[in-house]
Amino acid sequence: MNAKRAHTEDGQSQIADVAASDELGCGHGLPGIFTGLKGAAAIHFQDFNSEVLRFLTVPNAKANLIKRSEERMCPIVRFFAGDWSEVHRLLLHVCSDSVQNREDFGTKDEGTDGYDIILMAETVYALSSLENLYKLIKKCLCRPHGLVYMAGKKHYFGVGGGTRQFLNLVEADDRPVQACCWSPAVEPARPGSFA
């Protein structure tokens, strides 16, 4: 969260200009709600479990985004349940349909297929899911300006995943994505070499 906070303090308008953001493994949906409160036009929340969406994410989004929409324009909010190996089929279709030019609501901007921002918090805990997670990010991130914000632990004891393992996977890729990683450690947030 420190990496995201530092990024928005320096360039608050970058969140306000976001057409679409997606939070993967959203749980309570706090990072996605944050982008909505800062002005993102569309927010998609994804979790493996539909129960998590129904009992945690939807109530939080209603309480923090929809009820506060009287103060400003309410973002388009959608919820998706599914495994990272297959949910891209839904996310890409919906993202392509919902990302519209703000000045001309009938025309899609060129190059807007995908999310401007993908958010993840505590999603890199299991080694077995890292490859599918990274493939999903590559399929759903808007190129070339899309960013991924990841918060997590360096290592999750008992399951073996962590930010180090995920960053190693990304850095081994010949066409990596742009990301910013924050891990609760002594070191400050570091941008990944994911360009």
From TrEMBL:
Q: Which UniProt keywords apply?
A: Cytoplasm, Methyltransferase, Nucleus, S-adenosyl-L-methionine, Transferase
Highest taxon, organism lineage: Eukaryota
- Gene3D superfamilies given in the database record: Vaccinia Virus protein VP39 (3.40.50.150)
Keyword check for Nucleus:
yes
- This enzyme's EC code(s): 2.1.1.85
| Subcellular localization | Cytoplasm; Nucleus
What broad class describes the main subcellular location of this protein? cytoplasm
Top-rank EC class of the record's enzyme: transferase
Q: Which family does it belong to?
A: Belongs to the methyltransferase superfamily. METTL18 family.
Q: What is this protein called?
A: protein-histidine N-methyltransferase
What species is given as this protein's source? Platanthera guangdongensis
